[in-house]
Design goal:
- There is one protein chain.
- This protein has two domains: 158 residues, NAD(P)-binding Rossmann-like Domain (Rossmann fold, 3-Layer(aba) Sandwich), CATH 3.40.50; 182 residues, Rossmann fold, CATH 3.40.50.720.
- It is 33% helix and 18% strand.
- The protein is built from twelve helices and 17 strands.
- The chain is elongated, with a radius of gyration of 22 Å.
């Protein structure tokens, strides 16, 4: 049985699906690996390093695809790559079914099994495969670093002979994996941090990291059984807006991380709320690719409105692709290990396994 992976379009996606460490682990399972020439050279990993582990290289993506039973990707295959996919191939990656519905339907017509790992159930057995958590963790960290760069002022309080520099105030909207990492990173850098989330259960997590939790009094349950946020009612949104009016005036940096799985990102910061911030403030919208939490945020643009910077980056993982690839490749290896039977020397699609059932895309 052979696992293959081809180069991504590095203008769009700099991560890779197989690293040296994961290649070693995959081969230890008894599997072979095929990669496309110059697979990870942009990350400083040469083909020779992979070859030393027993990896085989081909000079084109079509040859890798044709000679692999299971294909690992980061993004959804391109139209050109789809042409080369052969029947009964297993395809694993982050495919965003809501966005790539037509492409995935085209692939399914070829009798190909597609596993999209952002659909993993939130169960303990799936934690090592959880691509959303591993990548969101990094996104939360990097969003703070990027925000501080754009802020162009000191973040921690500094007492000097020339006077005291006050600590910057950071507000994090959405206290999921990315939000909690943003809180932790901003605190480590000396900021005064507060956060808000529709899920009341987030309060304890925020406070454990040293943040102040801004809460909206509510009776409705805004958390799914899987632990994700649900769409809020209009009444809740009004209360949230009232809460944020004061918060926006006081904070220097706002990091938006609120997402609802499979749906557009909730618009939390209106034009009026954005304009309440002081000139020189920064809003970093991690949800921009799904529509954005903040008004004026656009993909891969920094918009300046009344002196306030609104930053939207499509793929923040391209800012730290080696670390992101290392974590992503480990997630994929864990998924492969669950899918592969050493006894039968084959990939077994057992629909009684919740992990396999939930991640398998069907027509």
């Amino acid at each position: 049985m052979t696992v293959g992976s081809i180069k991504e379009n590095i203008k769009i996606e700099r991560r890779v699906a197989i690293t040296l460490e994961s290649a070693k682990n995959i081969i230890a399972l008894g599997l072979n690996i095929n990669l496309e020439k110059d697979y990870a050279t942009h990350l400083g990993i040469s083909d020779k390093q992979f070859e030393a582990l027993g990896v085989k290289f081909y000079d084109s993506s079509s040859k890798v695809i044709n000679n692999s039973k299971l294909l690992l990707k980061v993004d959804c295959p391109s139209d050109e790559e789809i042409k080369f996919l052969k029947e009964k191939t297993i395809l694993v990656g982050i495919f965003n079914p809501a966005k790539n519905e037509n492409k995935l339907k085209e692939i399914l017509k070829k009798n190909i099994n597609i596993f999209s790992l952002e659909l993993l159930p939130r169960i303990s057995r799936a934690q090592s495969m959880d691509v959303l958590s591993s990548q969101s963790n990094l996104a939360g960290y990097r969003s703070v670093i990027e925000s501080i760069y754009e802020f162009e002022k000191a973040v921690p309080m500094m007492m000097t002979a020339a006077g005291t520099v006050p600590a910057a105030k950071v507000l994090v909207i959405g206290a999921g994996v990315a939000g909690l990492q943003a809180i932790a990173t901003a605190k480590r850098l000396g900021a005064i941090v507060s956060a808000t989330d529709v899920r009341a259960a987030s309060k304890e997590q925020v406070e454990s990291l040293g943040g102040k939790f801004l809460t909206v009094e509510q009776d409705e349950n805004l958390e799914t059984t899987g632990g994700y946020a649900k769409e809020a009612s209009e009444e809740f949104k009004k209360k949230q807006t009232d809460l944020l009016k004061e918060a926006m005036k006081k904070n220097d940096i706002v990091i938006c991380t609120a997402l609802i799985p499979g749906r557009p990102a909730p618009r939390i910061l209106s034009e009026d709320l954005v304009k309440l911030m002081k000139p020189g403030s920064v809003i970093y919208d991690l949800a921009v690719e799904q529509g954005g939490n903040a008004a004026y945020s656009e993909i891969d643009k920094i918009n300046i409105v009344e002196g306030i910077k609104i930053v939207g980056i499509k793929n923040l993982m391209n800012k730290l692709p080696l670390t992101a690839s290392n974590l992503y490749a480990k997630n994929l290896f864990s998924f492969i290990r669950n899918l592969y039977s050493k006894e039968k020397k084959d990939f077994i699609i057992n629909l009684e396994d919740e992990i396999i059932l939930k991640t398998l895309i069907k027509e």
